[in-house]
């Protein structure tokens, strides 16, 4: 089938009858002309009427330069949509092009729409204890950042997978670095949900190639620090007035001597503590909440003593009466200060502390709790 040739042109003008009272600026409109058929639509851009001349902002002021740059983006998007529709459907109308630009009728394979569905599914898994709430919060943050980026930089409320190009990914990367101040490691984490979405889109046949194929970003190794043996002893021997402060300290110590995260300690139940036939010792047999990776941890004497200390104090079959994450972090700051520990301690530090001392396990076993 031969592609039907058509005349295509765009032009910009301002709607002087709709000047805004608050700043005196008029909306900029774009007229699409195809084969003598015209359609007009708003660009969501505004300009001072005196600055407008011959379809663009005149002069080289910052406002004029920014507006003209945005108009070029609008024109480029319309042109891209025009050629895509012509390639896929053999002919284009002004109405088709207008709807494609506005996202009308072509929203079935769009990123934010799928992102919303993915977040709803993730939330359901969090409620069932299958995924971590902290990871869900990261997914929400990525969604909000990408939605804001699309609106602020592209004047879009969503974007089709086919439009997610290397240039868009690079622009989003720059947006997160410059305007949100994110580090390489945070960027790496924030890229994961988008990678997951595009991978699913590829499996569904929506995209033919990986838009992240030429995008490279690696996690940078960081020294998160650890507690020394002396610091652990000081922390273990400290006595606090408030029971909850002592509880939080004990939960932190349990994390240090098992390598379990906050959420894994909070959800730990007695049925996950089992005596193994091959060594006759007790082990924690579980699956990490955040990663769903199987985890088998031998129980050291210190950990056993802590389990015994809080036996029967938690609801249901839970091992510990674990406070909220926010409460734990608040008390850990107070604990560090009281113990003269200058490091910022938290549950991110617990595994570094225990594994850094694994060779000193005999002396660590003798720390009284």
Spell out the blueprint of helices and strands.
Blueprint: E1 8-14, E2 26-34, E3 37-47, E4 52-53, E5 56-57, H1 62-89, H2 94-102, H3 111-127, H4 133-154, H5 166-179, H6 184-203, H7 229-237, H8 243-256, H9 262-266, E6 273-275, E7 282-287, E8 294-298, H10 301-309, H11 325-338, H12 350-356, H13 361-365
Antiparallel strand pairs: 1-2, 2-3, 4-5, 6-7, 7-8
Helix pairs in contact: 1-2, 3-4, 3-6, 4-6, 8-11, 8-12
What can you see in these coordinates?
The protein has 369 residues and is an alpha+beta fold. It has 3 domains: 8-102, no CATH class; 111-203; 229-365, hpI Integrase, Chain A. It contains 13 helices and 8 strands. The chain has a 3-stranded antiparallel beta sheet, with helices on one face. Strands 6-7-8 form a 3-stranded antiparallel beta sheet, with no helix packed on it. Strands 4-5 form a two-stranded antiparallel ribbon. A hairpin with a 2-residue loop joins strand 2 and strand 3 (37-47). Helix 3 packs antiparallel against helix 4 (133-154) and helix 4 (133-154) crosses helix 6 (184-203). Mean pLDDT is 82; it is low at 350-366.
What is the compact description of this entry?
The chain has 369 residues and is an alpha+beta fold. The chain has helices spanning 62-89, 94-102, 111-127, 133-154, 166-179, 184-203, 229-237, 243-256, 262-266, 301-309, 325-338, 350-356, 361-365; strands at 8-14, 26-34, 37-47, 52-53, 56-57, 273-275, 282-287, 294-298. The chain is 47% helix and 12% strand.
Strand-pairing-aware structural class: alpha+beta
Tell me the CATH superfamily of the largest domain.
Answer: Intergrase catalytic core
Radius of gyration: 29 Å
CATH class of the largest domain: Mainly Alpha
Distance between the termini: 81 Å
Count of alpha and pi helical runs: 13
Mean pLDDT across every amino acid position: 82
Question: What percentage of the residues does DSSP assign to strands (E)?
Answer: 5-15%
Total domain count: 3
| CATH topology assignment of the largest domain | hpI Integrase, Chain A
Order of helix and strand elements from N to C terminus = EEEEEHHHHHHHHHEEEHHHH
Helical proportion, percent range: 40-55%
The rough form would be described as elongated
Beta-strand segment tally: 8
Strand arrangement, major sheet: 1-2-3
What does the oligomeric state look like here? single chain
State the low-pLDDT regions, or none: 350-366
